[in-house]
Amino acid sequence: MSNEAILHDQHFGTHDAPHAHEHHDHESFITKYVFSQDHKMISKQFLTTGIIWAIIGGLFSVIFRLQLGYPDSTFPWLQDLLGHWAKGGKLDPEFYYSLVTMHGTILVFFVLTAGLSGTFANFLIPLQIGARDMASPFLNMLSYWFFFTASMVMLSSLFVQTGPASGGWTIYPPLSALGEASEGSKIGMDLWLVSMALFIVSTLLGGLNYISTILNMRTKGMSMTRMPLTIWALFFTAILGVLSFPVLLSGAILLLFDRNLGTSFYLSDIVINGKILPNEGGSPILFQHLFWFLGHPEVYIIVLPAMGMVSEIMAINSRKPIFGYMAMVGSLFAITSLAFLVWAHHMFVSGLNPFLGSFFVLLTLLIAVPSAIKVFNWLTTLWRGNIRFTPGMLFAIGFVSMFISGGLTGIFLGNSALDIHLHDTYFIVAHFHIVMGVAGFFGMFAGLYHWFPKMYGRYMNNTLAYIHFWVTLIGAYLIFWPMHYEGLAGMPRRYYDFSSWESFKMFAGLNEFISFVSIIVFAAQLLFVVNFFYSIFKGRKVTTQNPWGATSLEWTTPIRPGHGNWLGEIPEVYRWPYDYGKDGRDFIPQTEPVGEHESKH
Amino acid sequence: MNDFFLIAIVVMVFLLIFQIAKASEYVSILKGEDKQRKQTNRINGFLLITFLILGLIGAWWCNDLYYSKTLFPQGSASFEGENIDTMMWITIVICGIIFFITQVLLFVFAFKYQESDTRKPYYFTHSINLELLWTGVPAIVLTVLVVFGLKYWFKFTSDAPKDAQIVEVTGHQFGWEFRYPGVDKVLGKKNYKLTDAAHNNPLGVDWTDEASHDDIHTQIMHIVVGKPVKLVINSQDVIHDVGLAHFRMKMDAVPGIPTTLWFTPKYTTEEMKVRTGNSNFVYEISCDQMCGKGHYTMKGIIIVEKQEEFDKWIADQKPEYLKVDEILDPLAKVDSASARTVAEVTLIK
């Protein structure tokens, strides 16, 4: 009861403070929860939308895993759910491909880009650099609403008669350009493209805002080298997005032209269903270049924020500074630069000039160097620490484990000679799910468990969090580790059924096992969702301002900060954010001036 | 009824876990939060090290179960693919060592340096030497991998040997077609606008090119063991991919842009039946680039055989040009001049 009262006071504290933004005094429901310009609320909007998308995208994977694991069974309830897409409880191949496509699109873009960057860039940038809000709160609000509109368009494509896009999340033309080639390439594909165009606008508005906020709105004393690594990571992520998403937009618009205006950017020499098309001179390879020029940076857009948050959480919970701060920043920079120069490693077998391919081999394998630096720095951060296994910390450790496993298989795939054999098999499915999917999610979970108390002034339930962690970690390895073996047998991805293939049918038992585990892991994620929403309203209350004993600025704000974040002046910063265990002190906040006798690092 | 039962059980389990989790919060308050936290910390530290040990055992066990199902034990079915296998082994060993060291360090450090009241964390911010070490070593290791990789890559992607058998592969939704150049060893020109399945020209061959007159169109690919084969790959509609897992080869089929691929088969189909211990063994071409709803059915069959068998087979095949003639006028004698005129007539039409 008394806690409630404290929270109540805290909550409205800002408005009593003389320096708070006076124009937010009269917040209505609409301006506070819907068209909010408060970066914290926008972050929660991104998060909630991301979680809903994650449930949908995850459910899709469970449905198509049912087909892969139990190709001979029927599930009558599928017909109740999907109607004519699952007649007699058997998934239609066309819709199987729609599910695969939507699973990829949703998780890559809507969950791990918008849900991850959108949430944590919005939430952490102003709080950790000491700003009252983003450089442009209005553009920030627009960014969310463009994302929301993109979501609605994509969602609507699930309900059209011919079904949503079904050409894979990479939507390679001509398959995606010709309605005759597949049902999903009819109206569903147009909706996909429109939705992505809106999504890109959202990303650009957000990204420009993040960059200008970080460059211009740091509090006094917060030099670039005193920023937490989360901010560095989010900064590079935003730069990646701003420079690469417009290329995807151009690719998508040219595809829309080819589809609807009779142009031939990607089409040439095509006979489909006996019909000879007039298009000549276009190149499907052009689309692949445009797509992967975003597509590859995209995986770093996903994994960099996770890396940043993991670095931060790992230092805090080891009670030890992050090892090699400048090397961490340098490797982030190196990864960001190289991310633009490796896209064609997705196209080694597309007919690309082999000589050109060799440069991409070299540049791709170069990325392993900064990645190795990061891994060894994380390991050294743990070394001789005093580690607290909070749920956030466990997910951070899990992230490093996944990043190692998935990163190493990247060395196979980046080497074109091996890629010839492994390309488009389950080996690549295992690789990117581990290094981008699972690792991205682990970073996101680490961040959520860690900053949930700052977001909502309450804790999530620890027991559920631990169950969630262990089931997910073990499950993820059980699902994706054996897939490498399927890949080494050349088993192609995106197959609806393997039973008629003499070369691949021996994995039926393994496929069933993988499907079974993936259902359990999906259920464990629902446990997280329940924990998340329950804890927003009923979780244990946060009673101290700095529950983790962290040095960074967000923990100097009130337990439930209002719009404007700090009561009174924004604190000044005197040191880097990793003074843990220095001179026998547990931690020294960034706001504490450097003492006379303090040792140097 | 069964479904309802299942759902009910799942919901019950959920509620049960949730209630236990809630109760644990109250227990921790009763017990003293700090004490409870430290106990949980120890449990998680123990679980982490257990996970490492069981995980490594599991990885071993998984290898035991599935190694025999990969393509390693039967070896590459092409001479070029042997290089890929060698390269794969080099990479597996290097990555395996790094994997083992880093994963062990990660979990062992986590376990060993778990929170204890007696330990003071070591304030260790950076070390130029260490960082140079783990920049330098990976860079050197990767250089080795890049050098080996590119050496093989340039070998596979170089021009096919002069004596290579040329086979044209054409993909469409959802199947493969093959065309042999015949005795003149030159494939006749094609023009996709001439494609006309109804008049026996499904590949769009330009009959005005005399080189096309002896070209043979088949549904199954026959190739000779020990003799290099060069595939000229086309697609008629969307992008497909000629996936040859046993030969360790792969190349996209792109409409409008012919691609090539060559390899030298090492074992005949019959030999592979023995090697794999599978009497149903066939070399399959799998489409490895998503091409629509029938993607998973897009299979091609390759028969690798001895030269004599191949010669016998190809001698039985009738050039497609002659089939065109038959359809148009079954009674006409096979006469290349008249057939050409007829073909031209159909072209104009």
Keywords:
heterodimer, A: 601 residues, mainly alpha, Cytochrome C Oxidase, Chain A, two-stranded antiparallel ribbon, B: 349 residues, alpha+beta, Immunoglobulin-like, 2 domains, five-stranded mixed sheet, 48% helix
The helix/strand class of chain B is alpha+beta
- What is the gyration radius of chain B calculated from CA atoms? 31 Å
What is the level-2 CATH architecture name of the largest domain in chain B? Answer: Sandwich
| Largest interface summary | A-B, 130 and 119 residues
In total, the number of strands of chain A is: 4
For the largest sheet of chain B, list the strands in their spatial order: 3-2-1-5-8
Shape of chain B: elongated
Oligomer: heterodimer
The CATH homologous superfamily of the largest domain in chain B = Cupredoxins -  blue copper proteins
CATH topology descriptor of the largest domain in chain B: Immunoglobulin-like
CATH architecture of chain A: Up-down Bundle
- Kindly provide the name of the CATH class of chain A: Mainly Alpha
Task: Describe the protein in words.
The complex is a heterodimer of chains A (601) and B (349). Chain A is an all-alpha fold and 601 residues long. Chain A has 18 helices and 4 strands. Residues 1-24 of chain A have low confidence and may be disordered. Chain B has 2 domains: 31-116 and 127-156, no CATH class; 165-328 and 336-348, Immunoglobulin-like (Sandwich), CATH 2.60.40.420. Chain B is 48% helix and 16% strand. Chain B has helices at 2-31, 33-66, 79-112, 128-157, 269-276, 307-316, 320-328, 336-348; strands spanning 165-172, 175-180, 216-218, 221-224, 229-235, 240-244, 249-253, 259-263, 283-287, 299-305. In chain B, strand 1 and strand 2 form a beta hairpin. The chains are: A mainly alpha (601), B alpha+beta (349). Chains A and B meet through helix 5, strand 1, helix 9, helix 10 and helix 11 of A and helix 1, helix 2, helix 3, helix 4 and strand 7 of B.
